[in-house]
Specification:
The chain is of the alpha/beta class and about 280 residues long. Helices cover about 40% and strands about 15% of the residues. It has a single domain, classed as Glycoside hydrolase/deacetylase (TIM Barrel), CATH 3.20.20. InterPro entries: Glyco_hydro/deAcase_b/a-brl, YdjC-like.
């Protein structure tokens, strides 16, 4: 088994809805995921958290920092004036203009870390960001300081880096402009993580258009190839049969992802690529 190359496969958005949670729990139980990123501001996270916590011996469980889409856990008057949650485009604009309110952002990160600990009984194994908000200037600095405080108290953890060489992104040929922009924003994330006493993945994949074509299987087959000793692929599965969330624009794509990750084709593709799904700090 351990002659295969390890890949961390992380499902984002746990806690967003019952459909997402059901898919993630099923895939973890079947060994199809090795990391789960939790939206602790989501209405379903506390309810599903106890069940996910029972699977902690099978998967890393981390914080999916949310500063878009969901209401924050505390006041963010500069970031969300009038209580209006920003779009990712608005947040990017503020970050690139140097207008992230550092103190209130750091306080919200602290609140979400504390909520995670309240739900799961311990700090997260890792931290990343919804819509990659954690790599944005200002937000990243606040996050690194919070992480350094945790590692300084002896907690081992890792951070998601979205950095990847442009040649690798272009060779893969999936959402090249979007992936390249995210990678550009992530430059130096691994070094920042190490300075904070944490670790980081050294290859990142998983950005798609959420469209029916190319198929998710075709995308995943390409995500299984590439360099890196600790490569990370993100995914966004959800199960059908639950009340629909009209605000979840990517639900059809979530259903397609779950169908493939739960199929016989997925382990066959892993075998063909010489890949095993493994946790971040696994050896080999």
């Amino acid at each position: 088994m351990f002659d295969k190359k390890r890949l961390v496969l992380c499902a984002d958005d746990f806690g967003l809805s019952r459909g997402v949670d059901a898919a993630v729990l099923d895939l973890v139980e079947r060994g199809r995921l090795s990391a789960v990123s939790c939206m602790v501001a989501g209405s379903d996270c506390a309810a599903g958290g106890a069940e996910l916590a029972r699977l902690a011996d099978r998967t890393d469980i981390g914080l999916h920092l949310t500063l878009t889409d969901l209401a924050p856990l505390g006041p963010l008057p500069a970031t969300m004036p009038g209580g209006v949650v920003p779009t990712i485009g608005t947040l990017i604009g503020k970050a690139l203009a140097g207008r992230i309110a550092y103190a209130e952002t750091k306080a919200e990160i602290g609140r979400q870390l504390a909520r995670f600990t309240e739900i799961f009984g311990r700090p997260p194994d890792f931290v990343d960001g919804h819509q990659h908000c954690h790599v944005l200037p200002g937000i990243r600095r606040a996050l690194i300081e919070e992480v350094a405080a945790l590692t300084g108290r002896g907690h081992r953890m890792w951070l998601r880096s979205c950095a990847e060489p442009f040649k690798a992104i272009r060779r893969r040929g999936i959402e090249v402009p979007k992936t390249s922009f995210i990678a550009f924003l992530s430059r130096g994330m691994g070094d920042d993580a190490r300075r904070a006493g944490a670790a980081a993945n050294d290859s990142f994949r998983g950005v798609t258009s959420f469209a029916p074509e190319p198929s998710f299987r075709a995308c995943m087959q390409r995500f299984l190839t590439g360099a890196g000793s600790v490569p990370l692929v993100m995914c966004h599965p959800a199960a059908g049969g639950y009340p629909a969330d009209p605000t979840d624009a990517i639900m059809p794509a979530r259903l397609r992802e779950y169908a493939h990750l739960g199929s016989d084709a997925f382990p066959a593709d892993l075998d063909a690529a010489g890949i095993r799904i493994g946790r971040f700090f696994d050896k080999g």
